[in-house]
Amino acid sequence: MAYYSQFSKESLDALRLELEQQLKRYESENHDLNMARGKPCSDQLDLSNALLDIKIPLEKNPNDDFRNYGTLDGIPQTKQLFAELLEVDPSEIIIGGNSSLNMMYSTLAKVMLFGTSEEETPWCHIKDLKFLCPVPGYDRHFAICQKFGMEMINIDMTDEGPDMDQVEALVANDPTIKGIWCVPKFSNPTGITYSDRVVERLAKMKTAATDFRIIWDNAYVVHELYNDTEPLMNIMEACKAAGTQDRPYLFTSMSKVTFAGASVAAMAASKNNIDFILGIMGVQTIGSDKINQYRHSAFLKDLQGVKNHMKKHAQIIKPKFDLVLKILDEKLTDRQIATWSVPRGGYFINLDVMDGCAKEVVEMAESVGLKLTPAGATYPYGKDPFDRNIRIAPTFPPMDELEKAIEILCVCIELVSIHKYIERLDHQEEMAQ
Amino acid sequence: MAYYSQFSKESLDALRLELEQQLKRYESENHDLNMARGKPCSDQLDLSNALLDIKIPLEKNPNDDFRNYGTLDGIPQTKQLFAELLEVDPSEIIIGGNSSLNMMYSTLAKVMLFGTSEEETPWCHIKDLKFLCPVPGYDRHFAICQKFGMEMINIDMTDEGPDMDQVEALVANDPTIKGIWCVPKFSNPTGITYSDRVVERLAKMKTAATDFRIIWDNAYVVHELYNDTEPLMNIMEACKAAGTQDRPYLFTSMSKVTFAGASVAAMAASKNNIDFILGIMGVQTIGSDKINQYRHSAFLKDLQGVKNHMKKHAQIIKPKFDLVLKILDEKLTDRQIATWSVPRGGYFINLDVMDGCAKEVVEMAESVGLKLTPAGATYPYGKDPFDRNIRIAPTFPPMDELEKAIEILCVCIELVSIHKYIERLDHQEEMAQ
């Protein structure tokens, strides 16, 4: 039985007054707190400062000079590093610039203009394009679909990935459903990692569209908070086994490994896909920044080097996750007015408040100087059908600011929830009269 | 009167034998020479090695950290630098990644998918798209048009830019002609700089297409070989004066200032265009590599700093241009079988051999170990209607290799020309019988 339903209206009113006083005190403190985006903090960035001092070898052979033009798909050592990360062959890798988001947008823009292969219709010439969006999910994925005029279809997230019954039923019959967004490990924002069963079903499912694509945004591939590794089935191998190897486009980047704004991104795909994409990329550019590629390879060395480096990130950010979870637990568990994820990696804590309360909570927090990810942002078109989901990004603020931020957030959640309960009581009274 | 036409068939045959012997000697020397692309040489790249040692300020304010996410359009100091280079306001600048080619492709890809503005039709939904291509021109421009399925229309280059009578007549009546490629300064490959009159006519001309765009690829904006500056009228000001400020998209990069493969590119455009493009870019990426932007700004400082730096480039590459021109003059001027440009900047010498000979010359050179830009590459679809244009890129090879390369090239030109003359004589004999 819910905590507040045991309270009389008078008790609720007293509590409301007390919380409103608290909110006013926060307001008078003139806070400027920000938990809106999944950004690394300065201490995390400092972990990679040695990247700036990497000596670039000035090759004797001028045809092999990192400073000059050339090498469309990336230098061998960086392809090797990303191949280890994404568990594919280096020949299945293309290195991009500093942003995997840019690679995802650009890959889909290519598919819009040129199709997924010579044989397929460019998506810009297909009416009623649709894309599956597991929700809650990543707002920047949804923004790309929206920009390309694709209708987005919500798919419920379960604790082992997207609800595959929904997915299979939809893709089997509708050839205008062209793909699905996936953040398969430490999903943004729910934090879950896809089960083997889900990965296999994604690989094996029958799709009415012959050019169906899985956008496999493995942004948090090595972003563990704990010492043990959360296993994720290899989608490329699963698809090869199922004969659907052209289905997945894999992406990742070093943005949350080294420097968020100045790292190296990569994609992986089947040989068919790589050849087709490189055919267009060869018209688009002569190649990405090889000096930055070299810096990253020299600094991180190999998968084990990346994993060792990520342990240092975990040492900095796990205490932040722990602090948020501790305060949420202390302030809200008994109240039974919110539930939240306890992620083992990634960048977010996923918070569900009472239905119909998320927007009000976020607005109230902002009114006293705490900026959160906008309510609804985790849903296509910014529309959370339940108005309950809030994404918490604990990495960027320093510990003292984070503590204050979560305290404020909890007060806002309590207050909005109490308003809701009081409304309910008022409504019951009205009905009884 | 042409030199070889004074020769008897016997004299020509003797000369042919001599040149063929020479060619065999070259073949036996196993050369591996490359003048195919406009690449800087190692000595040029070395001029910017200090860029690698620039200290990145680690900001006290974490919201203003070059290492972190953010700043879609570029950091202020780099926008300021490019604004000086392109003679526009910093608010009219967007900083990109390492490649202006990528920015051009990506801007046109946006126009294909979204149009030039909210009001205009996306070009991918327009049939019979056409683009004007001054010829000879830059093969990578033409490759973009071809990839996007645009019909390319050749426009003759004069010694002051594209033939504006042709351009004006075409654009006035055909709304499917959507734009024109321009390399306005030290044009690739002819080396000419557009006259004020041409720039003004481009700005003022009436276009049937309301979304006509000038792609102003100012790749060689500061790439002087001589101490004096070759003036170029400001297209943005000319267009503002003519009320066509949304017509030009300007591009340039530091690729041939610092590191060809790891520099910073930028575009400039009217406020309307910048707003529209940033609106799409905001979906595409969080921003380009700010660390590399900072390095460039700190290393080059301002326009004067860039100009000083370019003088060092000129010291390295002008002797290469001079050597090529000297050998061409010694070997070919008297023969009257070729003409070539004497550029005051840029990266190329434009060579015209006798009609119908370019392909054979390039193939012959390749057969003895000298790789040139493919004949025809300077024309849309790789088709030089006269088969006479060859682009010489003298910057990359060391002086000794360059000398050998041009000697080989001259022998090939002589030999192919003599074949042509002998053919003519044979033909005349046949006709006389």
Describe the fold and architecture.
- The structure is a homodimer.
- Chain A is α/β, with parallel strands linked by helices and about 425 residues long.
- The first copy, chain A, has 2 domains: about 5-45 and about 305-430, Alpha-Beta Complex (Aspartate Aminotransferase, domain 1), CATH 3.90.1150; about 65-300, Aspartate Aminotransferase, domain 2 (3-Layer(aba) Sandwich).
- Chain A contains 13 helices and 13 strands.
- Chain A has helices at about 10-30, 40-45, 75-85, 100-115, 140-145, 165-175, 195-205, 235-240, 270-285, 290-300, 305-330, 360-365, 400-430, and strands spanning about 35, 95, 130-135, 150-160, 160, 175-180, 215, 250-255, 265-270, 340, 350-355, 370, 390.
- In chain A, a hairpin with a 2-residue loop joins strand 4 (about 150-160) and strand 5.
- The two termini of chain A are about 25 Å apart.
- In chain A, about 55% of the residues are buried.
- Chains A, B: GO terms for molecular function: L-aspartate:2-oxoglutarate aminotransferase activity.
- Chains A, B: This is Putative aminotransferase MSMEG_6286/MSMEI_6121.
